Amino acid sequence: MGRVFVSRRVQGGALDTLVAAGHEVDLWPGELPPPPEALVEHLAGADAAMTMVTDRFSSALLATSARLKVIANVAVGYDNVDPAEASAAGIWLTNTPGVLAETTADHTFALLMAAARHVVASDRDTRAGGWKTWSPTAFLGSDVHHATLGIVGLGEIGQAVARRAAGFAMKVLYTGRMPHPDRERALNAEWRTLPELLAQSDFVSLHASLNPESRHLIGAPQLAAMKRSAILVNTSRGQVVDQDALVAALQGGWIGGAALDVTDPEPLPLIHPLYASPNVIITPHIASASFDTRSRMAAMAAANVVAVLEGREPPNPVNRPPRPRA
Ligand code: DGY
User: Fold this and answer.
1) Maximum Cα–Cα distance for the chain, whole Å?
2) Which of 100, 236, 263 to mutate to test the pocket of ligand 1 (most atoms within 8 A of CB)?
3) Half-sphere exposure of 70 (CA within 13 A, CB side)
4) What is the DSSP string of 230-278?
5) Which residue lies with its CA nearest to atom 7 of ligand 1?
6) Span 84-93, pLDDT tens digits
7) Pocket of ligand 1 (CB under 6 A)
8) How much distance in Å is there from the Cα of 126 to the middle of ligand 1?
């Protein structure tokens, strides 16, 4: 029997699972994330937390959350918590691998195609009365079929994107920390170094998790190395791209466009120059947001909470605290 702080209303029956397992749920009622002082207050009395990527756990917060045994992120990413600090505090950190790759790949492809074929801009123009006639030259875009797609990070999501690319007869290149010969064969993908991939791709799709190595992986030199017609797609984390450099690249015509589900910061302030840059699509970090996938993510987080509160190892650990809190 424990008290579980849940930092946002979640999809599906995850909260019922917690209650059925005998736990008390303290649900944050707001649409917006709990502010830092509310997190401190609610976590001080919590045995477990079901949290979102928007809930930042500083070392001070870990220290004041004296009863906390598990942080169950409703996300595969966990850049809101330092796993080493959680381990040192004796707190399990868990995530939701495996369930969101296909849904995120769907959105990646939606963004890629929307940017290639001006779906958002032409819709806006049509609503504003811009559709005067069939035009032989309006909204000309780039072909997706038979184009070259460069995937940065051939993990679960990158592989799911590569499978979709096959249906469009795209040539698939990939890069990452190391080559994956087995995945290459299965996906008909070819390994390239990052500079090679950037120079050869018509679309570059980012699927790197955020860590000190991947922060600003795509900066001015990388953007300058891309084809002038290339479109950058980012459904990973905003900080993987140096956003000031991206603005310069778009405004300077170094690349053809960008389709972003993630920005730095989030939400992106409305005065940000990215909004005024040519051929940019921005969606509000919704790549995993299908009814089914968000239900599955919440259900996994609840299962992780229940396991830890019953004294078992969680099914999806990110860390392994040497002395888990009892
Ligand atoms: C994740 O799971 O890390 C996503 O970014 C949140 O949907």
Assistant:
1) 70
2) 100
3) 31
4) -EEEE-S-GGGB-HHHHHHHHHTTSSSEEEES--SSSSPPTT-GGGGST
5) 288
6) 999 999 999 9
7) 53, 75-77, 100, 288
8) 33
What's the whole-model pTM score? Answer: 0.96
Measured CA to CA, the distance from residue 299 to residue 20 in angstroms comes to: 13
Return all residues near 164 (Cβ < 8 A) that are at least 6 apart: 105, 106, 108, 109
Integer CA distances (angstroms), 128 to 121, 123, 275, in order? 11, 9, 18
Calculate the CA 77 to chain-centre distance: 7
Q: Which atom of ligand 1 is nearest to the CA of 100?
A: 2
| Residue 285 appears among annotated catalytic residues | yes
Alpha carbon of 164 to ligand 1 centroid (Å): 20
For residues 236 and 262, is the Cβ–Cβ distance under 8 A?
A: yes
Nearest to 242 by CA among 219, 267, 275: 219
Which residues does the chain have with pLDDT short of 70?
none
Atom of ligand 1 nearest to the CA of 289: 7
Tell me which residue has its CA closest to atom 6 in ligand 1: 75
Tokens matching residue 177:
């920390």
Q: Looking at residue 326, what is its pLDDT?
A: 86
Ligand 1 atom nearest 78 alpha carbon: 3
The pairing of beta strand 203-206 with beta strand 189-191? unpaired
Residue 127, classified by CB atoms within 10 Å of its CB into exposed (0-12), middle (13-18) or buried (19+), is exposed
Q: Which two tokens stand for residue 45?
A: 């009395």
Active site residue 24: no
Annotated catalytic, 266?
A: yes
Which residue minimizes the CA distance to atom 3 of ligand 1?
A: 77
**Which ligand 1 atom is the nearest neighbour of the CA of 288?**
7
Q: How is residue 19 written in tokens?
A: 């209650």
- The tens digit of pLDDT for each residue in 166-196 reads 999 999 999 999 999 999 999 999 999 999 9
